[in-house]
Structure formats: C-alpha cells, structure tokens
Design a protein that fits this description.
This protein is α/β, with parallel strands linked by helices and 335 residues long. Helix 1 crosses helix 9. Bound molecules: 1,4-dihydronicotinamide adenine dinucleotide and magnesium ion. Magnesium ion (MG) binds next to helix 8.
Length: 335
C-alpha cells in the first residue's frame, strides 16, 4: 500500500539533500508517494506567504512530512517558520539521536549513542513577547514554561526509553538560576520520574552538561530538556559524532509528525552539490520507524553505515570527495 507524505524541499542545501534522500527512499522501495508543498522563501515568491495554507492542509491530510531546512533571517526580519510549524501542529517532542559512525572526522569514533528529547513548543526559544523599546535601548522576551508542556515531554522521554530499551534519563536544567521556568520543569520531571522506577534518572545543570558531553559523552543515554537548551545541546551532540551532516531530528505530535535534519540551510555550501545527505536520510529512517516500517528503517541505517565503512563517495565534511548525489547513490546501492 502506498502512503503519501508531504515533502518540503526547503532553502539553501534543502533541495539538494531532498533529491538525494528521495532517491534512496525510492531504492528502498518504501512505498511512499510524495506530495510537494512549499514553505519559506520559495513559498513567498510563489504564493505570497511564507507558510501557505495549502502546505498546512497537506500536512494535516498526510500527517507525515519530510522537511529540508528553512532559512530564518538573523536579527530582524520574519520569525521562524520552523517554530510556526512546530506550534501549529503541536509537535511537542523533538527527538534527536546522536550516534558514533565509522570513518567520520569525529573526536569520538565510537561510544556515543544518545538521544536528546527537546521540548518543542514553549520556553525562551519560541520568542514570545519579543520587543525592543522605541529608543532601541531595551530588549525583552517572555519565557513561559507550563506544567502540561513539561509533563508531556518528560513522559515522552521515559516512554521512549522504555520502548527502545534505554536505561537512563538525564534531566537537563538551569533551575539554580532560572528558578521559575527551569524550576517548574525540574519539579515536574521529578514527579514523572517517580512513576518510572525501572529507569535510572539523574539531574544535571546545563552548563556542566555541555562540559560532560565533551569530556565523557558515553555517560549519557537519553537527555530530556527545555526548548532552547535542547537546540544548543543537539548541535553539540552532532559535533561529537562527526558534524551536522549526521544528525537527524523528528518533531512529533499527537496528530502529525515532521522529520528533518538538525542542521540548517547551510548557505555557505548551498548549490555546490557537496552537502552531506545523511542527516536528512537518518531523519527519513526515523520517519520509517514512526510509520510502522522498522525493517526498512534498519536497512537504510545499515546501508549508511556500510557506505561510511567503505568510504564510498563520502562528502567533503567527512573527508571524502563525493557529491551529495554520488554519496546517495552509493548508499542506495547498498539498501
Ligand atoms: P547550518 O546548520 O545551516 O550550518 C552550520 C555549519 O554546518 C555550516 O558550516 C554548514 O556548511 C555545515 N553543514 C550543515 N549541514 C551540513 C550538511 N548536510 N553537510 C555538510 N555540512 C553541513 O547553521 P547556520 O549557518 O547557523 O544556519 C543557516 C540557516 O539555517 C539559518 O537561517 C537558520 O535559521 C536555519 N536553520 C534551519 C533549521 C531548520 O530548518 N530546522 C535548523 C537550523 C538552522
Ligand atoms: Mg538548532
């Protein structure tokens, strides 16, 4: 049976890595049909809107989207379409695995296998109440954390640990300083943790977590944290395993899910055909797990590992001389 998914090609390296990813998914025979929808700069030019209603309708209908990165201007300009998508579909769980792979330029060629579970709909990251005073002297932002938001993300992390046989959850916070927001998150996390005596749980302050991740990443199994900390930590984790080209992310809600790479649109290498497609491919593997195709997800991951092991057409970020498409073809030949 064919399943239709929404495909957003995105900005910068987005279209290149999406072509590569769909090529591999087709080789896999996952039985997917693609409904293309626009968002971001492309959508603005075509539809006069950054996030057109037809795109939202497509995701509502298909419930599953595979999305390339979207550019968000730094400082002034429009606010993030990624944040808008996550909030519109209430995709509260951002699940970001980081795993050591062979033949990367990582400082940790083995021993890292962790998942960051990031709250995805509230906290400082969503930019609520952003304002700059008329004279440009004072900038403010509202940071809101709720019991409901905290509870469901921590519960998601514990359930994920149970389902995937993981043993330990680290709750990452800054409740020593941010007593209200991070304090509430930690309090709720402790309550939820008490319901899961089978899973070990510890707490760690976010700055120490960054140091611990760099020194001894093998001590982490599942990290659960608030939105902004999760954003920063997951890029750090990508760096541990060989870079952003290898780090995928799933945005999961009750009624929809969007799968992507952790990285952005990489304007510095866009259009050169050298972006590593593995992050989006690994995001596609998370998608296959989610839609009930775990065997295909595993075949895809194994083909990526085998291609890395063979050093076959690896992209320059991994030290090779392959292109986005030649790397994808090498992976496709091994699925
Ligand atoms: P970035 O993640 O696009 O790039 C950071 C560095 O990693 C660059 O040197 C880039 O060349 C490299 N890199 C990223 N992906 C790569 C890949 N697949 N293969 C090889 N090298 C890769 O971060 P940056 O430059 O801070 O952000 C650029 C834009 O992307 C911004 O507008 C930002 O808002 C947006 N962004 C979008 C995301 C999304 O759609 N989910 C996530 C992160 C950023
Ligand atoms: Mg980020």
């Amino acid at each position: 049976m064919t399943q239709t998914i929404t495909v957003i090609r995105g900005d910068g390296i987005g279209p290149e890595i999406m072509d590569a990813t769909l090529h591999v998914l087709d080789a896999l025979g996952a039985g997917l049909a693609y409904e293309e929808a626009d968002a971001g700069q492309v959508a603005l030019e075509k539809h006069g809107e950054l996030l057109p209603q037809v795109t939202l309708d497509s995701i509502h209908k298909n419930k599953i989207a595979l999305k390339s990165p979207l550019t968000t201007p730094v400082g002034e300009g429009f606010s993030s379409i990624n944040v808008a998508l996550r909030r519109h579909f209430d995709l509260y769980a951002n699940v970001r695995p980081a795993k050591s792979f062979p033949n990367t330029k990582s400082r940790f060629p083995s021993g890292v296998d962790l998942i960051t579970v990031r709250e995805n709909t509230e906290g400082a990251y969503i930019g609520e109440g952003q304002a700059v005073s008329a004279d440009g002297e004072i900038a403010t932002l509202t940071q809101k954390v709720t019991r409901k938001g905290s509870e469901r993300i921590v519960r998601y992390a514990f359930e994920l640990a149970r389902k995937t046989g993981r043993k330990k959850i680290t709750v990452v916070h800054k409740a020593n300083i941010l007593k209200s927001t991070s304090g509430l998150f930690l309090k709720v996390a402790r309550e939820v943790a008490a319901e899961y005596p089978d899973i070990q749980c510890n707490e760690m302050i976010v700055d120490n977590t960054c140091m611990q991740l760099v020194m001894r990443p093998e001590q982490f199994d599942v990290i659960v944290t608030t939105n902004l900390f999760g954003d920063i930590i997951s890029d750090l984790c990508a760096g541990l395993v060989g870079g952003l080209g290898l780090a995928p992310g799933a945005n999961i809600g009750k009624d929809a899910a969007i799968f992507e790479a952790v990285h952005g649109s990489a304007p510095d290498i866009a259009g050169k055909g050298i972006a590593n497609p593995c992050a989006l491919l690994l995001g596609a593997a998370q998608m296959l797990d989610h839609i009930g195709q775990p065997e295909n997800a595993e075949r895809l991951r194994k083909a990526i590992v085998a291609t890395l092991e063979a050093k076959d057409n690896l992209t320059p970020d991994l030290g090779g001389e392959g292109s986005t498409m030649s790397f994808a073809k090498a992976i496709a030949s091994r699925v």
